[in-house]
Design goal:
Elements: E1 23-31, H1 37-57, E2 63-69, E3 79-85, H2 88-100, H3 105-108, E4 112-120, E5 123-125, E6 134-141, H4 149-167, E7 173-179, E8 188-195, H5 199-214, H6 217-224, E9 233-244
Antiparallel strand pairs: 1-3, 1-4, 2-3, 2-9, 4-7, 5-7, 6-8, 6-9, 7-8
Helix pairs in contact: 4-5
Amino acid sequence: MAFAAAVIVPLALSQMGQAQPIVYTYVSQFQVPRANWAEYSENTEKSFVPIANKMVADGTILSYSTFESVVHTTDGYTHGAAWSSTSIAGLTKVLDELRKGGPQPGQIAATKHEDYLMQTSMYAMGSGSGASAYLRVVCQNAKPDKPEGYSAAVKKYLWPMIEDQIKKGVVSYVGLDSQYVNTSAPSMRCLVINFPNAENMDKWATAVNANFDKMSAADRDAFFGSTVSDSRRDFVARITHSGHK
């Protein structure tokens, strides 16, 4: 399901107040049987992580992460990896290196696999952000006739709160992604939040609720009216490896 697609770790170029180029993110997800979880993780550490670290070091990509789902569903994905670049070419260079080694046993054991190619020009992080430990992705469909209305609503009603939470160190990164390659509804938008620890997920929830409580009824209607009812899907994962410039 595409709501797990938009995963990213903090980017050195995404400081608040600076011009923001488009960042592309490639996400590869697998549904791995529980008996193969350890094997998949070992394969990832030996094959993907060294390549990703090298590509970050030489500037091919901006960042990468590997992750394990926290909330499991019968048809959902359990594991995955993501990497980001300011160019499509940067993303494909990682794929080219990975394919030299062929599919890993843990991947072959997977019962499902899906890839996503996302893009964002709306993101923020705090200076000196450290490694992220958890991520949450909230995806929902914008109104198809006004797909950018949701982005505008996030910018107007949520972004001041988001920047405040980043300054306080509650979150290390927030971005709003759309699909570069549409494999689900083109109007889907995904808000990606990285947390330095699980405790800060509670602090974030408190801040979000307080923000909505302060909004007028008309503003709440405008915000929630910018998306398709009941289209929201959430994804929560633990980040197992990450690196960024």
